[in-house]
């Protein structure tokens, strides 16, 4: 007897079987990943133990690694280049206890993480990879944009160490704000004079990467969000909703220095959203004025006395000077 495809019980059967197959495939992939990581960790352990019983040190230029890579390739094929074997050794040195490794990360993640020399910074990126489920490509982008250093410089010594151990914990509005925001993915030359509408369009065209720069919890709501007051129309450049903080996040773009009236305008937007757009369960909205530059003293005076959550940040169109930021973070930790 042939059951019609619209039969509810039959459709549930197909769905249940499909879910079982997907779960089995996911478990299989996870098991393969864990065994791949375990094998590379154990290879690193063997190399280090061999070193400890001999006189040759397996630095990158050593003949030990070169010979080992050559012999392993002959016996087992690809995957055993000199650089890979070196990474396996370093993998064991940096993570001597296998149980501390994350099953959520692949070997490609760890290979990228091993390129970070600072232990504190590396711990942060591990935690964020776990929490935000970053792909290797996303991890590379966050490392190259110095995410850890940018977040760390807004904190004290205790906050930096907590950031490394626990990752970024979002519990209040300031936790979602960066300064500066790095927009190098827009591929805009600093010599080009951009209008605000052109900048907005570039961001929309690269929305997925912009969401990565914003961080966890952001959902896009709309652009040029219209507000009408007494037959006057105002437009918020970008509107998001933050799932963790349960609030709207409004972003206004400025391709110049941020002025005091930009902050006043954002305050108007926030008051409107709080009254007209918020529904039951929504927290007060957050406003970010994102400009090409800002004067911190002007911002301090302009925001003073305002009860709404308004933040003013700069954006830059190039990757930050990583070494300079790392030095500033070291100074902060060693205070």
List the helices and strands and how they pair.
Blueprint: H1 8-52, H2 63-76, H3 82-94, H4 107-113, H5 119-132, H6 136-144, H7 147-152, H8 157-166, E1 181-182, H9 196-205, H10 207-214, E2 218-229, E3 232-242, E4 247-257, H11 260-277, E5 286-293, H12 296-303, E6 309-316, H13 322-333
Parallel strand pairs: 1-6, 4-5, 5-6
Antiparallel strand pairs: 2-3, 3-4
The CATH class of the largest domain turns out to be: Alpha Beta
The stretches of 5 or more residues where confidence is low (pLDDT under 50) are: none
Mean pLDDT, nearest integer? 91
Main sheet: which strands, in order across?
Answer: 1-6-5-4-3-2
Q: What series of H and E elements makes up the topology?
A: HHHHHHHHEHHEEEHEHEH
Describe the 3D structure.
With 335 residues, the chain is α/β, with parallel strands linked by helices. It folds into three domains: 8-98, no CATH class; 116-174 and 321-335, no CATH class; 181-319, Trna Endonuclease, Chain: A, domain 1, CATH 3.40.1350.10. Helices cover 52% and strands 16% of the residues. The chain has 13 helices and six strands. It has a six-stranded mixed sheet with strand order 1-6-5-4-3-2, sandwiched between helices. A hairpin with a 2-residue loop joins β2 (218-229) and β3 (232-242). α2 (63-76) crosses α3 (82-94). The radius of gyration is 25 Å and the shape is globular. The protein starts with 7 loop residues before the first helix and ends with a helix. The model has no long low-confidence stretch (mean pLDDT 91).
């Amino acid at each position: 007897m042939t059951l019609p495809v619209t039969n509810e019980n039959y459709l549930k059967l197909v769905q249940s079987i499909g879910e079982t197959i997907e779960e089995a495939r996911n478990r299989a992939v996870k098991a393969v990943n864990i065994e791949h990581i375990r094998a590379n960790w154990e290879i690193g352990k063997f190399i280090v133990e061999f070193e400890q019983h001999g006189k040759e040190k397996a630095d990158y230029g050593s003949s030990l690694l070169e010979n080992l890579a050559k012999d392993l390739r002959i016996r087992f094929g690809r995957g055993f280049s000199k650089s890979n074997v070196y990474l396996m050794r370093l993998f064991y040195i940096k993570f001597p206890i296998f149980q501390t490794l994350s099953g959520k990360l692949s070997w490609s993640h760890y290979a990228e993480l091993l390129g970070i020399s600072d232990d504190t910074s590396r711990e942060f990126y591990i935690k964020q990879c776990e929490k935000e489920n970053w792909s290797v490509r996303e991890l590379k982008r966050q490392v190259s944009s110095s995410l850890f250093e940018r977040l760390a410089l807004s904190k004290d010594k205790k906050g930096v160490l907590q950031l490394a151990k626990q990752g970024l914990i979002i519990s209040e509005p300031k936790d979602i704000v960066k300064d500066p925001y790095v927009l190098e993915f827009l591929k805009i030359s600093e010599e080009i004079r951009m209008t605000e509408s052109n900048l907005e369009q570039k961001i929309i065209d690269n929305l997925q990467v912009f969401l990565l720069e914003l961080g966890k919890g952001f959902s896009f709501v709309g652009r040029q969000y219209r507000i009408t007051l007494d037959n006057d129309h105002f437009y918020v450049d970008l509107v998001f909703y933050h799932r963790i903080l349960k609030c709207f996040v409004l972003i206004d773009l400025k391709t110049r220095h941020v002025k005091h009236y930009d902050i006043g305008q954002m305050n108007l937007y926030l008051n409107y959203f709080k009254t007209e757009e918020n529904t039951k369960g929504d927290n007060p909205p957050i406003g970010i004025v994102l400009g090409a530059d800002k004067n911190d003293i002007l911002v301090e005076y302009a925001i003073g006395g305002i009860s709404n959550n308004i933040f003013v940040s700069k954006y830059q169109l190039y990757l930050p000077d990583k070494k300079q930021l790392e030095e500033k973070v070291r100074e902060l930790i060693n205070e």
